[in-house]
Amino acid sequence: MAVGSFQFDDRPAGDFNGKITVSVVITCIVAATSGLIFGYDIGISGGVTTMVPFLKKFFPSVLKRKSEAKTNIYCVYDSQVLTAFTSSLYIAGLAASLGASRLTAAVGRKNTMVLGGCTFLAGAAINGAAANVEMLILGRILLGFGVGFTNQATPVYLSEVAPPKWRGAFNTGFQFFIGTGVVAANCINFATAKHSSGWRLSLGLATVPAVIMTTGALLISDTPSSLVERGKIEQARKSLIKARGTGNNVDGELAALVKYSEVAKAARQEPFVNILERQYRPHLVMSIAIPFFQQVTGINIIAFYAPVLFQSVGFGNDSALIAAIILGVVNLCSILVSTGVVDRYGRRFLFIFGGTLMFICQVAVAVVLAAATGVSGNKQISKGCAIAVLVLMCIYAAGFGWSWGPLSWLIPSEIFPMKIRPTGQSVSVAINFATTFVLSQTFLTMLCHFKFGTFLFYAGWIAVMTIFVIFFLPETKGIPLDSMYAVWERHWYWQRFVREQR
Ligand code: BGC
Fold first, then answer.
1. Which stretch of 1-15, 85-99, 344-358 has the lowest confidence by average pLDDT?
2. How far apart (Å, rounded) are the C-alpha atoms in residues 50 and 190?
């Protein structure tokens, strides 16, 4: 047995495993489309911030520097206002995701998704019509509230509705739609980049994924757990029958949910206090560590700034956007790899395999950039080296796509007991946004000062997180949500926290 892992292969994956039904597949696909709005935003902001008319209207100082910058290729886009434009969304998202803990418990996962979609829609409309920086930032704050709500509610929704044996695969749908949003946004940026008001279209078109996901969320029913928690037992039964198939007897599963909900209600406390109890230490550590680690893989730096980065390292305007599209497509395809194997080989295998690959790529990017641009970054990079950087980044994006991308949404949504599940997911999303904020706020400055060393910084983190997974993350594949406590009880390190409480 590997350190920190447990084999559950020989045991049936729970009594209420359910089959894959058409209805559960459609429901989960519809729910997962919530990822579209987040992905669209990630993709669009990176591209729009390289569009000359956009910079001219809102950030003229960056444009001035761009035309003067002949000296150091790493520093062209180092502007605090420009990064504030991108990052304001994350601060708003952070606040919203913490609020969403109570909201999803009170109104359900589905309604939180609907609310998130509507808020995002409003933000997209304001951004498309922006006349000044203030409107731009206000729009982004609303977009932030939108993704704060949906990123909190959707992974939990997917984990609660999916049959336990295939929970991993269903949950990767969220990341798949994030990736789809990124690619769609990159393509739109490519098409609009040449028009003087193209940025308006790019930002305004965020209304489309918002309408798609909000309509979808209105059509699905809430999760059985959430309905039981809110005392809607008959609706919960209907939702279960829909998810597990009409031929299946759902009485046992429903009775178990009711029992868990009653236990949770009897011990009802403030969930943000509950989560601090010693018995939830392993869960809490994971809900903080996993999203933090996801961000310090450096993925957003690549995703937000791929076009900027490629321009900085020698690609022209068009080719920088094409490079970003290629990167997005590679990432998207690799998520499907995760969908295919996450419930067969497990989460740990993907984390370790993906992490190793990403580590190698980050180190290699640093070496190529150091060799190609010189230590000061003043040498012009050759086309060949720029392509080498692109290839390495593609392999890196593939590694992310089958490991830290989807699994960082999956793990926090599946490890918590019902009574603090929404809170655990809120903490996780808040940490994700907070880390994204800090990194995006500092990355361009870091790139400007540390140059290729920036990539070594992320490589170091990837090594740390891979070792962390090896020693501390138990395997969760196939375990029904309500039996998840067993993985901690049998873990070489975490058992001391959970056993003492029995
Ligand atoms: C991450 C984002 C990232 C995206 C890239 C998501 O899972 O949370 O921060 O930009 O994947 O596709």
1. 1-15
2. 11
* pLDDT 10s digits, 179-236: 999 999 989 998 998 899 999 999 999 999 999 999 999 999 999 999 999 999 999 9
Per-residue pLDDT band for 118 (boundaries 50, 70, 90) equals very high
Nearest to 321 by CA among 9, 43, 18: 43
pTM greater than 0.70 (yes/no): yes
428 touches ligand 1 (CB under 6 Å): no
Rounded CA-CA distance 352/167 in Å is: 20
Interval between CA 16 and ligand 1 midpoint (Å): 32
Ramachandran angles phi, psi of 332, nearest 5° = -60, -45
Alpha-helical segments (H) within 267-378: 271-274, 281-295, 299-312, 317-341, 347-373
Taken in order of first residue, the domains within the chain and their CATH numbers are: 22-220+269-498 (1.20.1250.20)
How far does the centroid of ligand 1 lie from the alpha carbon of residue 303, in Å?
8
Q: Is 178 in the pocket of ligand 1 (CB under 6 A)?
A: yes
Phi/psi of residue 486, nearest 5 degrees? -60, -30
